Automatic annotation (TrEMBL):
PROSITE patterns: TAT. InterPro entries: BUG (IPR005064), Bug_dom1 (IPR042100), TAT_signal (IPR006311). The keyword Protease does not apply. This is Tripartite tricarboxylate transporter substrate binding protein. Keywords: Signal. It comes from the Bacteria. Residues 1-32 form the signal peptide.
Length: 332
């Protein structure tokens, strides 16, 4: 990560100074904003290192650091279906803009799976920017007995509970998609959750689990013939996996991309939010970050702050309703 010489005024700091100067009623706040950021920024990624979101957000951090004049340090904090990291930011971080987290759909869904919700996805965070989503799909080891999706379903139908699949956690978007698939086909698979897609792929390659159904960490292994993709979950086929059918082609009314963004703890100053939004938006639009997203077939799903906040509020209501409809619970 690049650390800029901070002895000379930086354009980002001049922007904050101008924003603060306009708020004549709050000169103390203006002085505080003028110093942002005054130390490294920590970006909590709630998955193990090496997965697609981790690589994409590391790229965002590297590029944003050049504009901010401070490093953006990635901290991997996996656990609890990808919600441990965001929850730690909501509950422990100061709202000064120096601690941020990836915001994804499991954070919006999981509290409603508890008898007593542990957090409010709208009120307990300051949502900053929407960025991208994932390419999801299912893949097996190259020497698997399953050459097609239909082979896998036929085996599952004849052998209830015997076929194992892995996702990045109970209650994650990809886990719920697989539950919907099993419900539609009347089959029973055994779910073996891991903390992240890279660990899930390792488990499949090692023969501990039959199939990974997760984000595209499996893609390079499909390309080098160590794995075989059985489905992708996009609206259209993915060009580099042109022979792999979508779920819609396989008869499921499902398109799953699970858009995500970046948020901070509640109570952040809107001037600081503007600075962070602008540098992350600019980083997102660079050819450097586009190359990372293209590597993992991650769609661009940019949303500015107000649009992203509206999306979060609307999606929370959708997730609540889905949890109730499927009778999902983490309480046993």
């Amino acid at each position: 990560m690049t650390v800029r010489d901070t002895t000379a005024p930086h354009p980002t700091r001049r922007l904050v100074l101008a924003t603060g100067a306009a708020a004549l009623a709050a000169p103390g706040l203006a002085r505080a904003q003028a110093r942002f950021p005054d130390r490294p920024i920590q970006l909590v990624v709630p998955w193990p290192a090496g997965g697609s979101a981790d690589v994409q957000l590391r790229s965002i951090g590297d590029i944003a650091a050049r504009a901010l004049g401070q490093p953006v340090v990635i901290q991997n904090r996996p656990g609890a279906g990808g919600t441990l990291g965001p929850l730690s930011v909501a509950q422990q971080a100061r709202p000064d803009g120096h601690t941020l987290t990836q915001m994804h759909l499991s954070v919006l869904r999981r509290p409603w799976m508890m008898r007593t919700p542990g957090w409010d996805p709208v009120a307990d965070f300051t949502h900053i920017i929407g960025m991208t989503g994932w390419l999801f799909g299912c893949a097996v080891k190259a020497d698997s007995r399953f050459r097609t999706w239909q082979d896998m379903i036929a085996f599952a139908r004849a052998n209830p509970g015997r076929l194992t699949f892995t996702t990045s956690g109970i209650g994650t978007t990809n886990h719920l998609a697989m539950e919907s698939i099993q419900e539609k086909d009347g089959v029973q698979l055994t779910h073996v959750p891991y903390r992240g897609s890279n660990e899930a792929v390792t488990a499949v390659l090692g023969g501990q689990v039959d199939m990974v159904c997760d984000s595209s960490t499996w893609a390079p292994f499909v390309e080098n013939n160590q794995m075989r993709a059985l489905s992708v979950w996009t609206a259209e086929r993915v060009p580099r996996f042109a022979t792999v059918p979508t779920l819609k082609e396989l008869g499921y009314d499902l398109v799953v991309t699970s858009p995500y963004g970046v948020s901070g703890p509640k109570g952040m100053d809107e001037g600081v939010v503007r600075v962070l939004h602008d540098v992350m938006r600019d980083a997102l639009m660079t050819p450097e970050n586009a190359e990372v997203r293209n590597r993992f077939d991650m769609p661009l799903v940019y949303q500015d702050t107000q649009t992203y906040r509206a999306f979060i509020a609307e999606r929370v209501e959708y997730e609540k309703a889905m949890v109730r409809r499927l009778n999902l619970s983490l309480d046993g």
